Amino acid sequence: MFTAATLNLGLALVAGALIAFVCHRRSAGSTDDFAGLLVFFLSLASVFGIGGAYLACRHIQNRAPLWAIPTAIGTFAIVLPLASYPNVAPVINWIAGLAATCALISTAVAVTIRGGVYSRRNADMW
């Protein structure tokens, strides 16, 4: 479980940092702007990463269905662009992209770790 949670949160933070970098490069802002963007997107990535890690660990323990992970986190990716105003639409789209990325990361980690756990358990039985 620790491996799944650490991997999930680490990859979510990397995704947040990459999105902050790309967003900064597209806006051609100053270095101070990049620090603000990095803090903003890393804080959002940590929220999505922690939520995804929790759901992934629940799925690995066979206590939550796999569809719960992309549904819970992916809801932000769908609802945020629908409920935005024209002035904040670019930032909302970046946040929605981060949510979709974290949903994919969490789902992939859950499937990979659970597959490894169950294949190891089945090998021990024989």
Q: Termini separation (Å)?
A: 24 Å
Average pLDDT, all residues: 89
- The helix/strand series, from N terminus to C terminus, equals HHHH
Strand content: under 5%
Number of domains: 1
Assign an overall shape.
elongated
Give the helix level as a range of percent: over 70%
Transmembrane segments: 35-57, 64-85, 91-113
Keywords: Membrane, Transmembrane, Transmembrane helix
Explain what you see.
Keywords: Membrane, Transmembrane, Transmembrane helix. The chain crosses the membrane at residues 35-57, 64-85, 91-113. The chain has one domain (1-124). It is built from 4 helices and no strands. 33% of the residues are buried. It has helices at 2-27, 31-60, 68-82, 89-125. Helix 1 (2-27) runs antiparallel to helix 2 (31-60), helix 2 (31-60) runs parallel beside helix 4 and helix 3 packs antiparallel against helix 4. The mean pLDDT is 89. The radius of gyration is 17 Å and the shape is elongated. The protein is mainly alpha-helical and 126 residues long.
Topology, pairings included?
Blueprint: H1 2-27, H2 31-60, H3 68-82, H4 89-125
Helix pairs in contact: 1-2, 1-4, 2-3, 2-4, 3-4
A few lines on this structure:
By secondary structure, this protein is mainly α. It contains four helices and no strands. It has one domain (1-124).
Features:
mainly alpha; membrane; single chain; transmembrane helix; 126 residues; elongated; transmembrane
